[in-house]
TrEMBL record:
<dbReference type="Pfam" id="PF00930">
    <property type="entry name" value="DPPIV_N"/>
</dbReference>
<dbReference type="InterPro" id="IPR002469">
    <property type="entry name" value="Peptidase_S9B_N"/>
</dbReference>
<dbReference type="InterPro" id="IPR029058">
    <property type="entry name" value="AB_hydrolase_fold"/>
</dbReference>
<dbReference type="Pfam" id="PF00326">
    <property type="entry name" value="Peptidase_S9"/>
</dbReference>
<feature type="domain" description="Peptidase S9 prolyl oligopeptidase catalytic">
    <location>
        <begin position="483"/>
        <end position="674"/>
    </location>
</feature>
<protein>
    <submittedName>
        <fullName>DPP IV N-terminal domain-containing protein</fullName>
    </submittedName>
</protein>
<dbReference type="InterPro" id="IPR050278">
    <property type="entry name" value="Serine_Prot_S9B/DPPIV"/>
</dbReference>
<feature type="domain" description="Dipeptidylpeptidase IV N-terminal">
    <location>
        <begin position="67"/>
        <end position="384"/>
    </location>
</feature>
<dbReference type="InterPro" id="IPR001375">
    <property type="entry name" value="Peptidase_S9_cat"/>
</dbReference>
Amino acid sequence: MIEAYRRAEALHPSQEPRLVHRAAITPVWEDGSFSYQVSTPDGPSLVRIFPDKRERVEEGAPPAAEPVLPPELTGVQTSPDGRHAVSVEDGNLAVNGVRITHDGTEGHAYGLPSDQNRLPIVVAQAGMTTPPLLVWAPDGRRFVTLRVDQRHVPTLTLTQASPPGGGPRPLAHTLHYEMPGDPLPTFQQMIFDAETGDRVDIAIEPLTFTHDAPLGVGRVWWEDDETLWMLYGTRGYRAAVLYRIDARTGEATVVLREHSETVMYSAPTIVEAPLVSTRGDEVLWYSDRSGWGHLYRYAGGELKNAVTEGEWLVRDVLRVDWDAREVLFMSGGHGSNPYDRRLCRAGLDGGGVTVLTPEDGDHHVQVSPDGRRLVDTYATPGMPSVTVLRDADGAVVMELERADLSALEKAGWRAPERFTAKAADGVTDVHGLLFLPGDFDPSRRYPILDSVYNGPQIPRQLRTTLRGHSLDPWLLDPAAGAASLAALGLAVVVLDGRGTPYRGKAFQDASYGDPGVSVGLADHVAAITQLAAERPYLDLDRVGIAGHSGGGAATVRALLTHPELFDVGVASAGDHEHSGYYAIWSETYQGPPPQDYTADSLLPHAERLKGKLLILFGEMDDNCHPALSLRLVDALIRADADFEMLMVPNAAHGYMHAEAHVLRRQWDFLTRHLIGAEPPFGYRIDPTFGGAA
């Protein structure tokens, strides 16, 4: 097994920058040209493109640049012109070091989100400082921010048994943590003049702080120096309310409101910025009222027309040209796979949709500020990405880059295979990826590992960008390292069952009101069973499951409710009891109060455990707090069940300093109980993930 461990370590997601080259670029647009940096085996290289001449100039290594610390490290938000630096000091706002508020207090601070949204313990342990939430006006002088009141919210206490540099006495850390049915934090918004400190309060009653502050996810924007917009999701996200605000007076008017019986989405998921745009009295509005997420045009608060329609959905809005009366957007469902994105154009006044990227595959498109140039990177799981320059109509002007995966393949990587199976209802198609070892031999039989995350807010198998972070599971799968796990000698399944996003409202709503968000697990069972029937090299007698956070909870649920299939599980940092987890989670996906969030709890059924289970969690996890795992542990002990547990001191929702140790313990557990071999004695993963030690 030592060679398998070395291959698995070589394919850890942290190795992607070393193994993957020319796969992605970010253009910097200038007049008449644009430049970008690209990774090469010899280091980063700077390329300049002159589109009109179709000319490419290799400029060599990029010049050394002064490092710019992000706001998360400085705790400061700087105005676009660099003149004003805003920070939070003891709950008060300061501009260029001078306080402009003086009544901020602990639990009622300016500029900061709620504790549950901020994760203050994680922030402190990572050496970061929370910067203020604000949005600058176009004049670069005024900004809108908020004040959150969480003084009435119940608290959660975490005990740090072994504080770094501390003595033998444990430390207690307390934060506000609202659980389902608890009173939620409230927030109010105000506008400040950074030069004078003058303040205008926005005339909206205190609103409950739900999943995220509107300021944190693009739900507040300036149309001009005098007009501000806010899109608010109510408690439980059953309604979306659009406010227009007079920035001079703070007067607010409700322009649009839409309600849903389940979740009222303003984008395909609630963790993405809303796909809503405004100009004057016109609003481009996103809704899945038809059963699919589409765009609608309103004027003066009245619906004028549907901009898009059909059995597919709008995934992202890239550019709205109000004067030309058209919108550029990414769609999902125009290709052979429903998760693949295509670039499309539609008229704001109706008239149909034009698909601008015909190649079958997933497209990631970046648009120049003037809308004349498109940089498109497209790929399939089995095809290295290609980046091309297109004109405004989608015609290819020139190829820019083609991914170099030679080092990745030399390290033992094998491209994942897409598959389609029937859900547990026998009708609905579900899609996934199958990762096999690089030395795959069809004459052998391989244990199956379900790398699970079945939460309703994030897909598991597709390339996407969430809040500026790219996720590409087709290479080294940064979310869970499926390629690395396959290198151990496993057939790893990555699947999105019913209840997950990007497949339309009926598909997503399958999980709504389900106390365990468990409906998708039946689809995992059905799909894995079908895969094994079609592929004799998959060993249905050895099936494991592993996941983190929501995937950790799904792992335990799978072992207890589907013991006929799952024999082995690794449950990491799970939200095992939704009644004790974030209110924003349970109330959004299981319904707002009143609701029985204890229904379908697994704790009374701990005696069902027959398979091998490893439970992992961090002592200082202020997301899925330790009690969620320890209450499960207590139930398992009372049932006299056999299991293993590892609590990592000082670790939060990620394992930080202990990542290498926790990873090796997972490999050992899967090797011993799923593969049926002995782990290599004394093997240590390099803490920097640079190679075997």
